[in-house]
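Give me the fold.
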Amino acid sequence: MTETATNDTVSGVRVDRALAAFEGLALGDALGMPTQSMSRADIREDYGTITGFVDAGPRQLIAAGMPAGSVTDDTEQAVLLARLLVEGDGRVDAEELASRLLAWEADMAARGSLDLLGPSTKAALQRLTDGVPANEAGRFGTTNGAAMRITPVGIVHPVDSIPAFVDAVAATSEPTHNTSLGIASAAAIGAAVSAGIDGANAPEAVEVAIAAADEGARRGHWAAGGEIGPRLRWAVPYLAELAPERRPDAVAQVIGTSVASQESVVAALALAACSEDPWSTLCLAAGLGGDTDTVAAMAGAVLGATNGRGIWPDVERAVLRRVNGLDLEPLVRQLLTLRG
């Protein structure tokens, strides 16, 4: 095989995995749309076992009335960040990110949606609006908002240098989540995606994620809470040693699925590391209760990056595109031109 052919093959694999990562994020997001912020008991009563896309039910207040296959803020903010990366040749201006996020929320509110900015992002953007410098505005952001939208950064930036990669993550996280937990969690998800695009399988990618989380924990303003790296070192083998039927209880009751980074981000990566069937893993995440759309979205991004598009059902991918008008391939190809 010639060198050109080899390079073309590598490029083709990267496109496939990068697109699978973005699609996995959107698929997981749409699966969790009707169940987000609900309890496991209410999810079972309203939907039974989640096996695919369903319409938002009567007790779904955030996404009330949304049809099956609709994405939420996880996907929309990731697309927003991706476009900023393309416009900035791989860099993101903090004030422009803040401006775009505020405009996105205003548009959602005008449409009558309750799917608005998360608590850390909302508070940080208010501080930016009040004139607080960008590197100070996100000093209290510890939730998963930076991690849920970080996939485009993982597509643009290779992870061969962990410190350099975390620099890129911190630059897009600081305006809203400039804390040790916020940056560590975003670094973990982004690094797992980036490692997958370069050929890592899910367990290997999670090992890279742990290293990135450790580096991220040294950035930003320190925040109290269990650290992402050490919790992953505990959670992955803990979940792997359990019988598959015991894992949902373990994730929901022990690891946790709230918006707190040290719960939802750890849950998503542990589920990805132990996954035997990616689509079933996303359906499981959507039924766990709590921040289901974000847990499923982050797990989907990592599983897509580490497996490629062949793992995602064609029917659901078509529904995702039709319902949301979502054509991710041109955007993903633009992101990959910036990689490295």
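DSSP finds 18 helices and no strands in the chain.
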